[in-house]
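Blackboard transcription, Thursday session:
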Amino acid sequence: MNIEDKNYIRNHIKIYNSLTGKKELFQPINKKYVGIYVCGPTVYHDIHLGNCRTFISFDLVFRYFKHLGYKVRYVRNITDVGHLENERDDGEDKISKKSRIEGLEPMEIVQKYTISFHKILNIFNTLPPSIEPTATGHIIEQIDIIQELIKKKLAYEKNGSVYFDIKKYNKKFSSYGKLSHNKIDKLFNQKLKNNSSVVVEKRCFQDFSLWKRANDNHIMNWNSPWGKGFPGWHIECTTMSTKYLGEIFDIHGGGIDLKFPHHECELAQAIGIYENKNLAHYWMHTNMLTFNGKKMSKSTGNFLGLKDIIIYNKSFHPTIIRFFILQSHYRSLLNFSYQGLINAEKGYYRLMNAIEKLKHFSTKEKTKTNHYYSSTFNIIQWIKDCYNAINDDFNIPLLISFLFKASHIVNNSSSVINNMGCSDINLWNKYMNHFIFDILGLQTLSLEKNSSYETSKKFKVLIERLIKFRIEERKRRNWILSDRIRKELSHVGISLHDDKLC
RNA sequence: GGCACUGUGGCCGAGUGGAAAGGCAGAGGUCUGCAAAACCUUUUAUAGCGGUUCGAUUCCGCUCUGUGCCUCCA
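(Written on the board underneath:)
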């Protein structure tokens, strides 16, 4: 296996497919292309860390396929249609509600939180998707698809709303529930069983809406063959994913909380329209980020935003939060904790120190060019191990353990490194950078650990002069003064680490 | 009630039918004017009960525990 030849690595990627419950060999539909669709946010509030986890996880998938040389089309939607807070007819939609609270037009709310969404993800160093379609930008396409479903008798209109007919669909395709393994007759809904006009309207309570009639108070509405209304939640994803990726594409992703009913309904709609057996070959679901042991969720109030991550007046750089998130596998539950962040921060600096050291090794002149094989460290094997870890359903925690192993060798075994050829060290350096920066998407922090302090220019100059002064005093062996300055600086959060005096 | 998943040292978190990664903390050390940092070494773990097997943490069954979904949600 030639490490520089990515074909071998490309042919050995395994992905856990939620649809089958198994890890499967990844085989793209078109050899050189990968199509990914990920469900994006409803833009009516600042996204919280739980949302970020999912987008960071898929950012890694996107980065990895790109790194391997695939042409990736990553589509992630923006839900900017105000869906109802619950299925009751008199319910208010989330965007309207927010616009009432903030005194803005619904589309102002959408604009504000779309910008915020991009800003937050940018802070986390996630790459923008290839296409980011909005639900409001695809009303016509959604209406077309709904009409198609009506034509196929898989949907029916009632009082200006259109519902997906699950019983008819199941009779024809018998596949509702294939993703979530739910059986329709076993589903229940306590709230809807109480007198609700929606239940009366629907033929079956599991039927879901494709188009909803707009009440007078519903500001966001569009003309349709069934009167003024707005599209249902699931139809936008079926419409936009297939518009940009084709009737069947490679990977469909999202948070595990969307698996049912959202993804199940997306799938049903797609099968109903295109009459294929599937919508995406691989369904990936990221697990939840919990806080106090419970899922982070806007509606319950149990969530943390980026601004909330401050402890003892200390904030964490977003790249530390990213590293914290990546240290657990995307399918595992991860509980947010400050101790976890502190641990991640220390580990992060350990890796960064190693990368700095390695950089110096690689710039040194070396004469040897042969690959160095030792019983303790084999660079080629190490690179393979790293790729194998990612290839095994994106096992990033395992990859990180290999990175720590490498950093351990950088720190510990200068004899090993001295025996290595120049090409090996360059290779090592190159792949450390690939893994840490290109794939994990971590960033170097330009300032020291105290970077979070808002420091004015004058203050910075003052500190620099004080430190310079202290160095002079240390050279004069004026320990009392230099220790005092160190202590005073530590009170304002600036810690000094002395080297040996020359 | 149904479906899906989970349980690993003090904490966080991987993997595996054949001597259990890694990080943090703890302990010891190197370095240092001192301190810190950095680095090195190192102690401690597979929820319980059965079964399959030469051998189970891994596979199967049961019990207990926790989580998500069956309104809106990443």
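Lecturer's comment: The two ends of chain A are 49 Å apart (CA to CA).
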